[in-house]
Here is the input.
Amino acid sequence: MRVFGIEFRNPVLLASGVLGISGYLFKRIEKMGAGGIVTKSIGISPRKGYENPTIVELDYGILNAMGLPNPGVDHFLEEIKDLNLSIPLIVSIFGKDSEEFMKIAKKLENYCDALELNLSCPHAENYGMSLGQDKNIVYKITKDVKKTVEIPVIVKLTPNVDDIVKIAIAAERGGADGITAINTLKGMAVSIEMEKPILKNIYGGLSGRCIKPVALRCVYDICRNVKVPVIGVGGITSAEDALEFIMCGASLVEIGTAARDLNVFRRISEGIEKFLRKKNYTLEEITGKITKNI
Ligand code: RRO
Here is the structure.
């Protein structure tokens, strides 16, 4: 299947943030059947991230405030430049403004298949969602990165806005080749014994099964209002979950929280194929089927 002009062996990709910094892990994820890899978000210089605790495990998902830890683009290039992956590598990048995004994008252009702009991290001052909640900023950063590189540029959006469709349209107008929806929902957790917030950063991003209905609603609304392909992400754990996103119009899906079990890629992509055989459909025929049926 081809999306953004890139060939994917299946539509089930690793989402940004989960396992994606070392070349060794990228090779394992490739072996475990993923259709493609989105890396942890990479910035212009090395960044340690927030102090512990950075993760809270909940019955229904995970709350994280990692704080954009990453080795910086120059070190990261060393990690990926001789990898020879057989599946597409999409590098997630973040910056504080257009200039920083353009610098990082240019450095990575020859070493990956596409870029995913992180305009959506819910707990990073000056980065992520503090840029991605403003449609004019989303338009400008997308446009500037697009004029800097020739590879596809995908924009990852936050659900923490009054109208995600407006932001998606701004990204499309800026020339985005695709939209990824959604990043995590801003939340917090409290310890009543310690009488304080559990995360050192107080706020964190909620992911996992509990956010699936929110993600699905965002994907459904975006797909009805933009023409570029959409990648659905948020709580996908089974083939049935993935098919819901595809029927709402997603061309690809990403697995984040559920990728703690690497068997998930094969389980979901084989489950999708089984469903298609049973119904005698192609993937293209079911993509957006719900949207078309209404
Ligand atoms: O590193 C993080 O804390 C983080 C990022 Br960059 C993001 O985009 N979303 C998230 O939930 N956590």
Observations:
- The first strand starts at residue 2 and ends at 3.
- Residues 2-47+70-183+212-293 form a domain with the TIM Barrel fold (CATH 3.20.20.70).
- The chain has a mean pLDDT of 96.
